[in-house]
Design goal:
Helices cover about 55% and strands about 20% of the residues. It is built from two helices and four strands, in the order ααββββ. The protein has a four-stranded antiparallel beta sheet with strand order 1-2-3-4. Strand 2 and strand 3 form a beta hairpin. Helix 1 crosses helix 2. The radius of gyration is 33 Å and the shape is elongated. The chain starts with a helix and ends in a 16-residue tail after the last strand.
Length: about 160
């Protein structure tokens, strides 16, 4: 009778160990999936903030361009010569006007140390009075890489 019981117990013990191993594997894979999903969520939130920041800056840049267009239109109506036109632009737009390059420039702050640079070249032949010369994002602050994590160098 002992022979039959010990043989039966060995079979139950083996299947129990396999079942425990399977449950342990599924639990570990579930936790890894949960961790990965959390990382993906954080990345998606950061990406959404970045895109929102860009479009807010772009909206401010469009408002700036509309203001410049209105000022250029008024200057064109009032001035009689090219010299008077440029002098009026300099008076009305002040620091935005770059006389050397004949452009109107500004930078709009964004997130993560970035800025949106807008440069509008004055052109009386165009309908708006300007031509877009630059409308780009650049890194305004120095980017420092975090090297605090010890990485094996191979030696």
């Amino acid at each position: 009778m002992n022979d039959k019981q010990s043989g039966g117990r060995a079979n139950i013990g083996t299947s129990s160990l396999i079942l425990i191993f399977i449950i342990l594997c599924l639990t570990i894979f579930g936790l890894l999936s949960l961790s990965s999903a959390g990382s993906d969520w954080n990345l998606a939130q950061k990406n959404a903030q970045s895109i929102k920041g860009y479009y807010e800056a772009d909206g401010q840049a469009v408002e700036f361009a509309a203001m410049v267009e209105a000022e250029l239109w008024e200057c064109a109506l009032v001035s009689s010569s090219e010299e008077a036109y440029r002098h009026l632009i300099k008076d009305r737009l002040g620091d935005y006007y770059n006389e050397a390059s004949n452009t109107i420039e500004t930078d709009v702050d964004m997130l993560y140390g970035q800025k949106l640079h807008i440069a509008l070249e004055i052109s009386r032949e165009k309908d708006r009075g300007y031509r877009i010369q630059a409308w780009n994002v650049y890194q305004s602050e120095d980017y420092e890489i975090d090297r605090s994590m010890p990485v094996w160098s191979g030696s």
